[in-house]
Amino acid sequence: MKKLLLPGYTLWLREMVRFFRQRDRVIGAFATPIVLWLVLGLGLGRSFQSSLAPTGHGYLEFFYAGTLVMILLFTAIFSTFTLIEDRREGFLQAVLVAPVGGWGLVLGKILGGTTLAMIQAVIFLAAAPMVGMKLSLAGVLWSVGVMFLQAFALTGLGFTIAWWMNSTAGYHAIMNVFLIPLWLLSGAVFPASGAPVWLGWVMKANPLTYGVTALRAGLYWDVKHEDPTVGLIVTAIFAVAMLATSLMVVRRTTAGDLQ
Predict the structure, then answer these.
(1) Residue 178: what pLDDT?
(2) DSSP per residue over the chain, as a string?
């Protein structure tokens, strides 16, 4: 167990120090979703109504859960950029030939990205009363649990994609054509009820949709809503699947393959 925890902790700590020393990453991961939330929320205002926002405060409130997920997504993406940098510097090759094991590398990297995402998401969650959302203790605990699973899954997804990337430009391209649409089609920006039938099915097949639904249930914990258990279960399965996928790609790779 010590052989697993110590390398994982060391890599986790490295991610923490590395992130907070780069202020541009902190600003980019946190400020971008906030600005988008304010621009879209204030722009659409009360012209948008949805049953998913029971208090009827308009789009600014509806988009709140989507912004939380966007913070998790952006931080996960930025944290896995380091995989590409580590390959260039030779650090990743050194880790692969060291007696660290796939578990230590994967857990250190994914938990590092998850922790960074959670720090920023929890800070934003604390601002919910500013938009008129009354959070209960049970709702907050539920929301934090859902966000942790989402952050873990998204960081694992980013890890899997970044592992095969040779440049940050290529990763940006994948982000624009895959990861951002994954978020857009999760119910974070618009409800599935207002989408065309075929697009609604795409949203149902998107695992991130269930995370957004479960998170929104936590924000409206004291308001009658659909049972969010399915959303939590699917999100947990998504997280486990991404962990397994990350381990698989690492174990199938040798240091020479990353040259």
Answers:
(1) 85
(2) -HHHHHHHHHHHHHHHHHHHH-HHHHHHHHHHHHHHHHHHHHHHGGG---TTSTT---HHHHHHHHHHHHHHHHHHHHHHHHHHHHHHHTHHHHHHHTTTHHHHHHHHHHHHHHHHHHHHHHHHHTTGGGGT----HHHHHHHHHHHHHHHHHHHHHHHHHHHT-SSHHHHHHHIIIIIHHHHIIIIISS-GGGS-HHHHHHHHH-HHHHHHHHHHHHHTTTS----THHHHHHHHHHHHHHHHHHHHHHHT--GGGG-
